[in-house]
Design a protein that fits this description.
Blueprint (H helix, E strand, L loop, with lengths): L1 E4 L2 E4 L6 H7 L9 E4 L2 E3 L14 E5 L11
Parallel strand pairs: 1-5
Antiparallel strand pairs: 1-2, 3-4, 3-5
Length: 72
């Protein structure tokens, strides 16, 4: 089946889970990644059971804090 990962079309096995995709894609610091499938966030505790479907659009997101104090 085909899915989109970060905007790129990829062929993956039928029945692949979000967790398996994270491993295949060698996602850095997977404990901190947020995953969206078709614009909906997937709860991290369901990564191992959330099955992807043909045509799904997957994004790996990292939320970072930061910024500066004051005006430069």
């Amino acid at each position: 089946m085909f899915i989109s990962v970060a905007g790129k079309r990829k062929e993956v096995a039928d029945g692949i889970t979000v967790q398996q995709l994270i491993e295949i894609e060698k996602v850095e610091t997977p404990q901190y990644v947020t995953v969206s499938v078709n614009g909906e966030f997937v709860k991290q505790e369901t990564f191992a059971t959330a099955i992807l479907n043909d045509g799904d659009e997957v994004e790996f997101l990292y939320f970072m804090g930061g910024g500066s104090y004051g005006v430069y």
